[in-house]
Amino acid sequence: MKLTTFFKDKTNLVPLQWLGVLLLLLLCSFTEPDFTWTTPSQNSSESMPCGGGDIGMNVWVENGDLLFYIARSGAFDENNTLLKQGRIRVRLSPNPFLNAKDFKQTLKLNEGYVEIYANGTTIQLWADVFKPLIHLEIQSKKKISSEISYESWRYKDRLIRKNEGQQNSYKWAVPKDLKMNKDSVLVSENQITFFHRNADPTIFDITVAQQNMESVKSHLYNPLINLTSGGKMWGDNLIFKGIENGVYAGTDFQAWVFKSKQATKKQTLNIALEISQTDNITQWTSNVNKTISSINLKQDKKKNIAWWNEFWNRSFIRIEGEASDVSRNYTLFRYMLGCNAHSQWPTRFNGGLLTFDPVFVDSTFVFTPDYRKWGGGTFTAQNQRLLYWPMLKSGDFDMMSAEFDFYNRILKNAELRSKFYWGHSGACFTEQIENFGLPNPSEYGWKRPDNFDKGLEYNAWLEYLWDTSLEFCQMILETKSYNNADISKYKPLIESCVKFFDEHYQYLASQRGRKSLDGNGQLILYPSSGGETYKMANNPSSTIAALKVVLKEIGNDSLLKKIPPIQYRTIAGKTMISPAKTWERKNNTEPTQLYPVFPWRIYGVEKDSLEIARNTYLYDPDALKFRNHVGWKQDNIFAACLGLTDEAKKLTMLKLANGPHRFPAFWGPGFDWTPDHNWGGSGMIGLQEMLLQTTDDGKLLLFPAWPREWDVHFKLHAPQETTVEAELKNGVVTIISVFPKERQNDVTILIQN
Length: 753
Fold this sequence. Notes:
The chain is an alpha+beta fold. Among the domains are: about 35-325, putative glycoside hydrolase family protein from bacillus halodurans (Beta-galactosidase, Chain A, domain 5, Distorted Sandwich); about 380-515, no CATH class. The strands form 7 sheets. The chain has a 15-stranded antiparallel beta sheet that branches. A 5-stranded mixed beta sheet has the order 1-31-30-29-19. Helix 6 crosses helix 19 (about 675-690). About 50% of the residues are buried.
């Protein structure tokens, strides 16, 4: 292969005013192609995502009706179901969508809205990035009338049925007669107000009692008490028609129907959403009205389009040829993450804000649109992390604060657990953690031996598993290097997380014997866990790698000296990373012996002991047995980080192939639910690592695991506040831009012949 490298320096543009401006725009601007369907959909599983800020919508046209679900991050009910805010149905007369030969439904990525066109009628639907507002704009060449319905399945109390408890925190242990409480709906001439106000007691109260923490209950953060979620829908040209009943996807609903006062060429529908913990509904209503009073439709739309333009110019990956779908799906999934960019709550791994009727995922799950597996207010840390690691290289730093702030809010509760149960300091963050920082009650265990450690989850998968919080600590630390972020408010969180391991494992050792450290003066990480896989582990390599990296990053040398070394083993004459010093059983299929490769990057391309790490990937019997591309599997990432190009290519093609539904980035259910967001996140990470990696001494490694036959143009971020834009075309590498300029000297091109 002929390999030539060119550098293009933006600062040396021809100093002609208009030519300079034009060239600068061409170099600095990047637009994503629209994504279009030319036929209507059959049901909600063929919906298209749309959103912004912290609002997500599933949008589709079915039997001539435009429908969309509304979801907003943080709308947790008393059982910790993440509620949809309702379904909207729009029916036009004369109907332009029935038998239309020119139908188009387009996700306008650069503008952040969905546009639907047929027979001279255009509908644009968008969510405001900066305010909790949804706008629907209808424009037609001829006057048309509309009938717009707000549809709700929570018009009545609903008993939680068998298997339906997976949508909330009770999961498989639903109490008898547990209900999903109905919403309140108020109608006036041209508007409808709808809201769900949490009743007492909530799952917070039940969990605190179950976990014997009632004596400190008043000190615990509680995000569910008095939480009210809902909103108001209105249109100036609407008048209330009446209430109708119906069934969709096996679930009955009521529809509050509005119709046009008169036929017009232009019509608008607006929806203001509000989630807040207020003492009374009057205050909640006041908050809604305040949002409504802030609307300036024309200016708001321009501001939103500008935000999406900037979003796409932060970073991109565009592949041509056989792998073009890979980069397209990467882009579509990044858009889905962008719909929750400004949220108080992290994007959920099990569908985000974009779940649809569950019967289209599993035909036996004839449940309401609120259903998803693995809970609504329960955050599985091992899965959540995969949504947030790729945001570093994509430059979406503003989207990461939701996850960091989530941990900061529940820090006090996690610290109280340690003090209450064991009498020592440090934050104990478990897996399957509730939005109030305590373990999920069903994972904690409703039927526990009386003498079992009250601070421990009575769960074969999750016991002694609490090191995933260190990944979020490392993400926080890396935002300092990537974006010069002010991370001062998170320092107590990071310090508390590492302190827990020091104090807790000395505490456990002191329960077994006279000495709290081993003969080398180091911690004995036992009992511990290599993810959910290697249980009752002694010194798991995944935990050791995590502590070594974070402690080195924060400069805690005294504790760093107490961390034991990563464990090795030899199989068939090949030295490789061991999952742990010892372990008693295997419970899952995640090869955590490769975690020192990713996320901890102790081993990798142009790093010491690369052969040991490659041996682990290529020859470890568990790593081979567990290998897969589905869901949260990370094999594509491991392969990329180890420079195994053929493996990375094969697994990435599988990981980022079209999903089973009409929208190609609706993967799943995998091990979780659809859309499977940790499937998409792990796909993003692997693709990024194929293109750009960095070394400890600051080198920028381009194309470390990239197949030379894939033409690509990309822009990604790197540590030291660096961005790299480069292109591979017909075997020629062009470095378009490296910022800051002096970082050009750190570029090393690694592409295999």
